[in-house]
Design a protein that fits this description.
Layout (H helix, E strand, L loop, with lengths): L8 H16 L22 H31 L3 H27 L8 H18 L1 H25 L5 H23 L7 H20 L1
Helix pairs in contact: 1-2, 2-3, 2-4, 2-5, 2-7, 3-6, 4-5, 5-6
Bound molecules: fe (ii) ion (2 copies).
Length: about 220
């Protein structure tokens, strides 16, 4: 992104609104890499399996909505341009994840979570506040969040049947990317959060996963 000093507050507000809409409106994210699922054949899944996998992919999609919001909230308030640059690559990859998950959810005849605007707002707020506290804290949040996402992805990969190569290919690529995002946030100076903070984040993410699985 160009130097933000050229943007007026109104410009920045409009840019944020544009990003939010691009995250929340169906089919609006343009992935820069094709989905790893396209080379995999569609599996024969029964309706119970299909519903379960769609629920898991809905959780992952909502997780990506949260990631977008976190990065955008953080970019709004981060003090050092260096931090924004460090996280821009990660934020681009999150756009891919978002689009891949949405494509897969539609292939499974389902829809993204209706709660996404709510989770977007909450995560944007967390990102913006963390960015206000310090760049170290805000990068620490990214690292802790990405760690959490890797854990979810591992759990989901255990639950998704081997024959569903499409869903698995997406989650495996996402897992690699998220691990790198966590590492680059720590390398850019992110704080390692103490266990109680991580526990609080785990509890919040439980609320997200329980609800997004269903609606
Ligand atoms: Fe992601
Ligand atoms: Fe990520």
């Amino acid at each position: 992104m160009a130097n933000d000093r050229h943007y007026s507050p109104v410009d920045r507000l409009l840019l944020q609104a544009d990003m939010a809409l691009r995250t929340l409106l169906p089919f609006s994210g343009q992935p820069s890499r094709p989905s790893p699922a396209i080379v995999e054949p569609e599996a024969e899944l029964d309706s119970k399996q299909t519903r379960h996998i769609a629920g898991l992919m809905r959780i992952n999609h909502t997780g990506e909505v949260c990631a977008q919001a976190l990065y955008q909230g953080q970019a709004l308030t981060a003090k050092l341009p260096k931090v924004r640059a460090a996280m821009e690559h990660a934020a681009d990859e999150e756009v891919d994840h978002l689009a891949w998950c949405e494509q897969r959810i539609r292939q499974l005849n389902s829809h993204p979570s209706v709660l996404n605007p709510l989770f977007y707002g909450l995560s944007f707020g967390v990102g913006a506040v963390a960015g206000l506290v310090s760049d170290r804290v805000s990068l620490g949040f990214v690292a802790a969040t990405e760690d959490q996402v890797v854990k979810h992805l591992d759990e989901h990969l255990q639950q998704i049947p081997e024959e569903d190569g499409k869903s698995r290919a997406i989650l495996e690529q996402m897992r690699n990317d998220e691990q790198e995002h966590a590492n680059s946030a720590l390398n850019a100076g992110g704080a390692r959060f103490p266990a109680p903070v991580k526990l609080g984040m785990t509890m919040l993410s439980k609320v997200m996963t329980k609800t997004a699985y269903r609606i």
